[in-house]
Amino acid sequence: MNVIIGRYVPSNSVIHRMDPRAKLLAMFIYAASVFFANNGVTYAMLTAFLFILLLLLRVPFSFILKGLRPVLWIVLFTFLLHAFLTKEGATLYQIGELAIYEGGLQKGVFISLRFLLLIAMTTWLTISTTPVEVTDAVESIFGPLKRFRVPVHELALMMSISLRFIPTLMEETEKMIKAQAARGVDFYGGPFGERIKAMTALLIPLFIHAFKRAEELAIAMEARGYRGGEGRTKYRLLTWGSIDTWLLASTVGVTILLLLFRA
Amino acid sequence: MDIVFEQVDYIYHANSPFAQRALYEVDLAIEHGTFVAIVGHTGSGKSTLLQHLNGLLVPTNGKVRIGEYTLTNRQKQKQLKPLRRKVGVVFQFPEHQLFEETVEKDICFGPLNFGVSEDVAKQKAKEALALVGLPEQLLSRSPFDLSGGQMRRVAIAGILAMEPDVLVLDEPTAGLDPYGRKEIMELFARLHRERQLTTVLVTHHMEDAAKYADYVVVMQKGTVWKTGTPEAIFHDIDELQQIGLNVPETVLLKRKLEEKIGREIPSPCLTNEQLIDGIKALFFGGRL
């Protein structure tokens, strides 16, 4: 369990205390602008900006890097694919049929950097923001769409419920694996047919249980007077401070600079 | 099968920042044919200990010997199947593991996994269902149409059909009404006698531990705090209460009675029957 993508790390940093809406919007703007970068200057700007944001997290940098390690393979693969398959510019190196061109190398670096920036930015968001905060932010940002009868509240609720139950489901899966292993199921080998059987012995009880739980949850919510988002107040109020404006303004600023400097 | 724990440590997520130690140098010997109750507070390591009995977990340090099998941290998962046939584990809320279309198929699932032929498995399913006190007509029904209590019995039958030598029970009566609890416990007591099983029961009900077990193992903070006969374990009420455990109601009643009348009741009073005998002895022994 050393993958940190999507994992919240508690801390009391400036970033952690920011309004989740600001962080979410900043993440979206940043992610969009990454696709407009197309030369060294613009990529350098994006990298520097992200670097500052990550430093402000006050989470050990080595921890973030370690967590990103599993993704590095995909990044490396992307790099190699582009490096070998793009045939532009001068030839740099040639081994038999395989040749690396200048354009390919550049493209490989840029594309994998783009990949890395996107992942690092989303990690920045999830490290500093609890899933509940993210859903609150989503609900608030898309709130205006309620006028067009988009069920924003319901969607946000679905999102938070599914996030809430991921650990529960994981725990249950582990228990079920053990219970069926005790009945002689071999999850680690055996012929194909038996493995399919092993999977049904695992998945069917899990599904049945999940459905049952969903029903119970619905009843429990109704019993406590839940009837959708209409007139519902919030326990955690989102407050927009000057620091949030700063974050958003600087993100927009970087994007504008990027548009000016791109080739 | 004799079961021996030698200096067993177990650490969850060993070698990671999330490492959590659950067992500390556990030494424990369970002789063949005994009925052992494991009691302890939540988080005392009961469930972790129990999962070592059929190799669902293997010790991080130390070793566990079960009959001719020895479990150490170098154990391969594949070699554990024969052990799992001999050690049947009934988990908490075993009805959650039902998945087949019919009760018969579900009970046959275990035996078939251990290489029993289909005809024999069906025969065993029939016997196991009778054993848990359910009518044969249920064999063709879907397990999901049954009541909660019936589902529990079907799940237990699924383990019994494997004909294990060691029966491991993790709070088998959790969530049952008092009558259902008594019936299930009587069933296990009968099986223990008739099939010469070794039975390991994890429970929160001190009454059950006192009534059915030959030995009681008290777990506390990941280690064996005390072992002994129910009489010995439930003798020292204050000591047990200090670690957050209770003693059977009858033992508490005995103590109150003794304080009131200033005499000793000549019985350990672990069960209702013993309590009645003790009071009778007071009356008719001419000592009152």
Would you kindly provide a written description of the structure presented here, covering whatever features stand out?
- The complex is a heterodimer of chains A (about 260) and B (about 290).
- With about 260 residues, chain A is mostly helical.
- Chain A folds into two domains: about 15-130 and about 240-260, no CATH class; about 145-225, no CATH class.
- In chain A, about 70% of the residues lie in helices and about 5% in strands.
- Chain A has helices at about 15, 20-35, 40-55, 60-85, 100-130, 130-140, 150-180, 190-225, 240-260; strands at about 90-95, 100.
- A two-stranded antiparallel ribbon of chain A has the order 1-2.
- In chain A, a hairpin with a 2-residue loop joins strand 1 and strand 2.
- Chain A is flat, with a radius of gyration of 24 Å.
- By secondary structure, chain B is of the alpha/beta class.
- Chain B folds into two domains: about 5-245, P-loop containing nucleotide triphosphate hydrolases (Rossmann fold, 3-Layer(aba) Sandwich); about 250-288, no CATH class.
- Chain B has helices at about 45-50, 80-85, 105-115, 120-130, 150-160, 180-195, 205-210, 230-235, 235-240, 250-260, 270-285, and strands spanning about 5-10, 20-30, 35-40, 60-65, 70, 85-90, 165-170, 200, 215-220, 225-230.
- In chain B, strands 6-7-8-3-9-10 form a six-stranded mixed beta sheet. In chain B, strands 2-1-4-5 form a four-stranded antiparallel beta sheet, with no helix packed on it.
- In chain B, helix 3 packs across helix 4 and helix 4 (about 120-130) packs across helix 5 (about 150-160).
- The N and C termini of chain B lie far apart (about 50 Å).
- Chain B: One of its GO terms (molecular function) is ATPase-coupled transmembrane transporter activity.
- Chain B: It is a peripheral membrane protein.
- Chain B: ATP-binding (A) component of a common energy-coupling factor (ECF) ABC-transporter complex.
- Chain B: Forms a stable energy-coupling factor (ECF) transporter complex composed of 2 membrane-embedded substrate-binding proteins (S component), 2 ATP-binding proteins (A component) and 2 transmembrane proteins (T component).
